[in-house]
Amino acid sequence: MAELNIKLTVAYDGTAYHGWANQPGLKTIHGTLVECFSRLFGRKVGICGASRTDAGVHALGQTANICIDTPIPVANMQSAMNSYLPKDIAVTSVEVAPRGFDPINHATGKHYRYTLNTAKVRPVHSINYCWHYPYTLDTDKMDRAGRLMRCTHDFRTFASAKDHRRDSIRTLSRVDVRREGDWIYIDVEGNRFMYNMVRNIAGTLVDIGRGRWVPEDITEMLEARDRRCAGQLAPPQGLCLVKVYY
Amino acid sequence: MAELNIKLTVAYDGTAYHGWANQPGLKTIHGTLVECFSRLFGRKVGICGASRTDAGVHALGQTANICIDTPIPVANMQSAMNSYLPKDIAVTSVEVAPRGFDPINHATGKHYRYTLNTAKVRPVHSINYCWHYPYTLDTDKMDRAGRLMRCTHDFRTFASAKDHRRDSIRTLSRVDVRREGDWIYIDVEGNRFMYNMVRNIAGTLVDIGRGRWVPEDITEMLEARDRRCAGQLAPPQGLCLVKVYY
C-alpha cells in the first residue's frame, strides 16, 4: 500500500474542548482526532490542522491532513472516521491530496464568522454559539468601520500582545457586518491571521456599534500598531472558522 | 404587600437536565428554577409548570407560575430572574395572572415541534437539538399520515405503555410535516397530551417516511389502542415545547 496524503474538512462544536492544539491533560480537538483515528487505523497517526482555534471557538470547515497507508478505501474513510468520533466533531469531506499538500502553508485564505445576538433575553439554544449582547448596536457604523479594515494593512493593533511575530502585515478581502433580526454576523476573510485578530476586530466593531468610537477611528488605530488602541476582545464562543481556502 | 400570581414563560436547553420534574439528587429544570428563585426572593418558592418535559427535551415556551409577595416590582422581575438563572434557562416573559390562574388546568392546548436532520454528516452545532437520521424520508407520506391523526381520537396506541390514565381521548388540531433542505419539522398541536405521545407520533411518522408502513395504516393503529402497534419512540433531543395556549 502506498502512503496517501488525505485532506480532511472537519466541523466541530468547540464548547467542550480546550481549543484545537494539543495540551497535556486537557481535552482538545486535535487530541480527540488523534486518539479516535489512531483507534480506527490501529496505530498512532499524525494530524496537522490549518488553524489553531481557541477554547470555545467552533468550526464548520477546519482543514487538516493525515498521511496514512491503510486498507480502508478512501470512499469509506469519512463514515469510518465519523463512527469513531464523538458527536460534537464530524469529518465533512475526505479527499486524496497531492503528496506534498500542507494545510498550513498552502492555505491562501480563511473565512471566519463572528455571531452576536442582541435580543433582550438570551437565546438559550444558541448561547454557546454567539456573544449575547443585549444592547443597541449601530450595524451601519460597524460595517463602515469594517470597510476601513479591508485591503492590506499592518494589523499589529488587532493582534494579541502575546503574538510576537515580526510580520504583522495582513490582507483582509472582506469585513462585512449584517443584521438579521436579533442576530448580527461579522464575516471576515483574509490571507493570514494573527493571534486573537478576528476576536479583537469583532470586539472593536462592537465598541464602535455602541458609540465608543466613530468608524473613521479605525484608520488611526491601525496606524498606532498598539493593542491598547483597539477595543475589547470578543468572547470565543461567537467565533466560527467557516472555510479554509487553497 | 399582596401576594401576586405570576405567570412565567420559560425557555430552556434541556441537554444538561434530567427533565422538568424534580427528582431527588438530580439536576432538573424545576429544581433549578426553585433554587434560583428562592435565592432571589430570599425564601423557598413553589413553582408549577404546565408540562413535565423529559430529560433532554427543550422548551421555547414552557409556562409556569409562582405565587409570591415581594418588594421587587413586576417590571424588574424578568431581568432579576434571568440574572439568577444559568445561561441555558431564561424567563422570556413575566405577567401578573388572575389570582386563581393554574398553568396545568387552565391550559387549552400545547404546541410541540419535533426536529429531524437527514444530512449524511451529523450537524455538530445542532446535534443536541435534533434527531440525526441520515436516510431518505418521504415527507409527503409523513404529512399524509399526520393528517389522519388530526381531530379527536383515542390515542392509547401513541402513549407510553407506562401511562395508565383511563382517559386517552385527545384532540390534535395540527400534525404538519415539512422539509427545509436537510431539516424536517413535525409540528403537533393539541388540547392535551399523554406521556411520550409526541415522540411516539414522531417515531411512527419516521417509520412511515422510510416505508415500513403506508400513511393509511395510521387508522388501524389508532383503532388498536395498543402501544405495540405504533412505531419507534423518537429520541428526546429532537423535541421542543414551543408554546402553551390559555
From TrEMBL, chains A, B:
Binding site for substrate: 112
Domain of life: Bacteria
GO biological process: tRNA pseudouridine synthesis
Keyword Isomerase: yes
Enzyme class: isomerase
Matching InterPro entries: PsdUridine_synth_cat_dom_sf, PsdUridine_synth_TruA, PsdUridine_synth_TruA_a/b_dom, PsdUridine_synth_TruA_C, TruA/RsuA/RluB/E/F_N
Catalytic activity: uridine(38/39/40) in tRNA = pseudouridine(38/39/40) in tRNA
Enzyme Commission number, as recorded: 5.4.99.12
Limits of the Pseudouridine synthase I TruA alpha/beta domain: 10-96, 152-246
Molecular function, one GO term: tRNA pseudouridine(38-40) synthase activity
Keyword terms, alphabetized: Isomerase, tRNA processing
Gene3D superfamilies associated with the record: Pseudouridine synthase I, catalytic domain, C-terminal subdomain (3.30.70.660), Pseudouridine synthase I, catalytic domain, N-terminal subdomain (3.30.70.580)
Active site (catalytic residues): 54 (nucleophile)
Record-stated family: Belongs to the tRNA pseudouridine synthase TruA family.
Subunit: Homodimer.
Protein name from the UniProt record: tRNA pseudouridine synthase A
Gene designation: truA
